[in-house]
Design goal:
This protein has 297 residues and is mainly α. It has 14 helices and no strands.
């Protein structure tokens, strides 16, 4: 479609993507000491990578869960991983995350002890649903009750995922699973493609979350109804033109099969961009400060 474009914000969006990737490149490829950027917002606050596959949690997930030899184990552990999205939680639960070894009582005991020692059990990156699936006031019990249900239904869930026709169909199968709404459902959908369980393209479908929609609106300030899928597709298809136009020498990494930022990552970039933008115009700041953590390879 034809879009009304805010030229300044379009420039800022591609600048954010370019500079965020430069930081990754200087830090992880060239192994230079910090600061990896002169941009104070990017220096001080935490933003995910342009390519989701480069984020610490995703790298950890691939190395550990992605290497399970049984597909059903990968599917089961992926749902667990998405509900907690916390590396230290995953590390202590990993031996219990296969179909054969899953033990509700053991997992809940481990995680309650962890929580009592003052550690985060869940991610701080987003909220995990607090719905009382088990009718409990304890979120941990409710979420683990969900995992018990998934464990019971794993054959059917795996079958539906494995036989999905395309990315959108895969997503529709995932969100049938209790506790997986659009946001977490889409994240798990991408996991199933990235582990190779499903061979769909990440460029064929996306789900624009609320943060992404705010970012897209900054670039395409159309007062009328906006087709977010179309807008994100436009950004994906025209990325090289914009990088050329603004003289941003974007560092594409050789480990990715397809050159370019896929549609699924452009969606996430729009969400990160609106956090950056708020700080850029002096109207608030991102929630999480940047902290130096070890890099998973």
């Amino acid at each position: 479609g034809s879009f009304k474009i805010d030229a300044e914000n379009m420039h800022l969006f591609w600048y954010w993507a370019w500079e965020r990737q430069n930081i990754y490149y200087k830090r992880n490829v060239l192994c230079l000491p910090k600061p990896w950027t002169e941009d104070l917002i990017l220096q001080n606050y935490k933003f995910t990578n342009v390519h989701r596959a480069l984020d610490r949690t995703t790298v950890w997930y691939h190395k550990n869960i992605g290497s399970f030899s049984n597909e059903k184990d990968i599917v089961f552990a992926t749902f667990f991983h998405r509900l907690f999205n916390n590396i230290s939680t995953m590390e202590i639960c990993l031996p219990l995350l296969t179909i054969k070894t899953f033990n509700f009582d053991k997992v809940i005991k481990i995680l309650k002890e962890r929580r009592e020692s003052g550690q985060n059990v869940f991610t701080t990156a987003h909220l995990t649903t607090g719905v009382c699936f088990a009718g409990s006031k304890d979120k941990l019990e409710n979420i683990l009750h969900l995992m018990k249900l998934i464990h019971k239904e794993i054959d059917a869930i795996h079958h539906n995922i494995k036989n999905s026709k395309n990315l959108e169909d895969l997503y529709n199968q995932v969100i049938k699973v209790n506790g997986f709404g659009p946001f977490l459902g889409y994240q798990a959908t991408l996991d199933f493609v990235n582990t190779g369980i499903c061979k769909h393209s990440l460029n064929e479908f996306t789900v624009a979350g609320p943060g992404c929609k705010r970012g897209v609106r900054l670039i395409f300030p159309d007062p009328l109804e906006l087709d977010f899928q179309e807008a994100l597709k436009y950004l994906t298809d025209s990325q090289n033109e914009y990088f050329d136009k603004f003289n941003f020498d974007y560092k594409f990494l050789p480990q990715f099969k397809e050159k370019g930022i896929p549609l699924s990552d452009i969606e996430n970039c729009c969400c990160e961009f609106q956090k950056y933008y708020r700080s850029y115009i002096g109207k608030g700041q991102p929630k999480n400060k940047f902290q130096l953590k070890e890099v998973y390879r």
